[in-house]
Amino acid sequence: MIVGKVVGNVWATRKEESLNGLKFMIVVPNDPVNPGTRESIVAVDQVGAGIGESVLVAQGSSARKTVQHADAPVDAAIVGIIDEMEVRKD
Amino acid sequence: MIVGKVVGNVWATRKEESLNGLKFMIVVPNDPVNPGTRESIVAVDQVGAGIGESVLVAQGSSARKTVQHADAPVDAAIVGIIDEMEVRKD
Amino acid sequence: MIVGKVVGNVWATRKEESLNGLKFMIVVPNDPVNPGTRESIVAVDQVGAGIGESVLVAQGSSARKTVQHADAPVDAAIVGIIDEMEVRKD
Amino acid sequence: MIVGKVVGNVWATRKEESLNGLKFMIVVPNDPVNPGTRESIVAVDQVGAGIGESVLVAQGSSARKTVQHADAPVDAAIVGIIDEMEVRKD
Amino acid sequence: MIVGKVVGNVWATRKEESLNGLKFMIVVPNDPVNPGTRESIVAVDQVGAGIGESVLVAQGSSARKTVQHADAPVDAAIVGIIDEMEVRKD
Description:
The structure is a homopentamer of 90-residue chains.
Chain A: E1 2-11, E2 24-29, E3 41-45, E4 54-59, E5 76-81, E6 84-87
């Protein structure tokens, strides 16, 4: 998983039927150790994340495990809302 | 998923049989947060996207969920046509 | 999928048994929109591609859908020989 | 797999139910051959790794093989604690 | 698959049980067309590759096809020892 920050939403009326009802959020990776500009991801959200929140994002086939319809073509999902992080660099 | 722009088409007569009937479109990633030059992708389209449209692209095994023939060797698919995006960067 | 150019062959006598009979070709990604130097891939070919040809390459688990032996450890496959591409950049 | 160093922890109270009980650790890739700054990963740990330890991390669908609940949306896992490495560069 | 060179070994006593008996080798990608410094990979070996040998490496879920225990969290495997390569760049 990666740490990301939710920065926006995407709306698509015409889409794969199995995606109906899903919420698509734009997430920017936000590396707690090595910050830097990274490509944004559109992730499905079913944990209720809001704009500005720090989240855990799972990618690849694992993202499909978050949606009821196992056949939805989803490759990124918000799987948790981060409360706290601790990083020790030494 | 990523946000992309449809910029072209690919035609291949000699191909894996399970790909027959599929439409292959060239999509350039178009990051709404951190723009930049990215590698193009050839994605299968079954939502009716046209050249110039902004689309959602799913990659990896999830892309196979969009085609009837679950055994088609497809690793990228257009899964939605984007109507609107909202990005808040602060 | 990505667009690539076939540039060579790889031979391996000692290999996983399930790979017997497969042809391994070296393919260089050849982005029709944003050209540049990319890492080459070794892809299995079952559509009869030749050196110099422009091909469609599928990667990841989807590549296994091209081989009879579904248990072959294959992560890239040539799935089509490209006849024509059309790119509109504006 | 890749070699990484455990540098921190992530806590998320609101998360996918199937993630309950899992421990999330921040791991920085630590290439034994070509060192350099790499993006950190949040990996599930079930081998008991501690901060500062050198670990093997598996990514993608393989990471799900480490958790009891095969349907957990996990895409990175610590699969071993490294005792020793030997690298010969010549 | 990619072409790599075996440069070392990794030992881990505490690891996922399903990894017992597997041999972990450090492989550096060694692109026959576009050489350059790439991140090393830890790959499972069951074809008997030795230090210094040129090998084919499969990544992702396909790597699991090389191990008896299909549930081992393995995401990279040496699948062949390369005898010969031919590259034509023109």
